[in-house]
Amino acid sequence: MEQNHASVLLAACEKRREERRSFLRAAGGIAAIGAGSSLLAACKEETTPGQSTPTPTPSTSAPSEADVLNFALNLEYLEAQFYSFAAFGVGLDANLLTGTGTQGTVTGGQRVTFTDPLVAAYAREIARDEIAHVTFLRTALGASARIAMPSIDIGSSASGAFSSAARAAGLITGTTSTFDPYFSDENFLLAAYLFEDVGPTAYKGGIRFLTTASVVEAAAGIHAAESYHAGLIRTVLYRKGLTTASLITSADRISDARDSLDGSTDLDQGISSSGSGASIKSNIVPTDTSGITFTRTPQQVLNVVYLNSRSVDRGGFFPNGVNGNLRASAANA
Asked: Which branch of life, at top level (predicted)?
């Protein structure tokens, strides 16, 4: 990433800071639908020199249930690969990668040498959940409808998605500096936080397009699981941040950067506490005044995982884009 572009990213993120602060059962019902039909922190991603930025026109028609399930499967591929490498040192089995669309590869990924046994145990639990989500969705959609895993970038190179996201969020500086999510417990937690807060908002945003009762029930089940994961990661970061304040600052910067990508409304929330003394209050669950978490549309979710606030069909953690019919992010720039 060129320095002048990084400066633009940081400036845009800073502006947003100043403005401040969405399936685990009933597979039979979903399989019938699949057989019949189809997660940061930069404000804009750099376009490869000599190439124009793709500006696809998002579909105005409501997506089918199979479209929504396949969209979710893209995200589950991403999370499952990240957690599987971090917890076990290996990615998904080959039999979990096939499907319609171009099957991609995974860039990066390695086992974390955890020093906190609690974080290691949590990582293994979440990894198994995410692998189970991939398996479930693939089975539910069926062989003729499920998408293949697209290319995924979870590496730690200076030009990779994690480093680009961290640089634009202000966690690292300089075009050659890197953010390695596998270097330490703390880096792993921050990388997980980047993804985990997106999952609940993505499922909440997609559930409106589901009409079959068994599909809604299953989607609600995965939504709940992703919410548990997100709350867990936020809790551990907050607890560690009580003694290492930079962790809370970094999490808040990631939140601000995500918020700079998905539109003008300030919805994303960090983990900073409010109040003082006996009145101090944590912010483990990002809610509105009614205690309800916010929603992202599929297009807004793609803004975050593509690391781009414009309407594009690839980038960030999905260098060649996602598979399926829901491919374009929203035009928020």
From this structure: Bacteria
Q: Domain extents for the chain?
A: 3-305
- In 98-212, where does DSSP find H-type helix? 117-141, 161-168, 185-196, 198-206
Q: What is the largest CA-CA distance in the chain?
A: 58
Q: What are phi and psi of 205, to 5 degrees?
A: -75, -30
Tell me the HSE value of 195 on the side-chain side, using a 13 A CA sphere.
Answer: 26
Q: 201, 109 in Cβ contact below 8 A?
A: no
CA distance 78 to 161: 12
Residues 6+ apart with CB under 8 A from 218: 23, 24, 25, 26, 27, 29, 30, 136, 140
Q: To which residue do tokens 């270097």 refer? A: 183
Extract the tokens encoding 48. 């490869």
**Residues 67, 326 contacting (CB under 8 angstroms):** yes
| Global confidence as pTM | 0.84
Q: How long a stretch of residues is the chain?
A: 333
Find the Cα–Cα–Cα–Cα dihedral 120, 126, 128, 131, rounded to 10°: -130
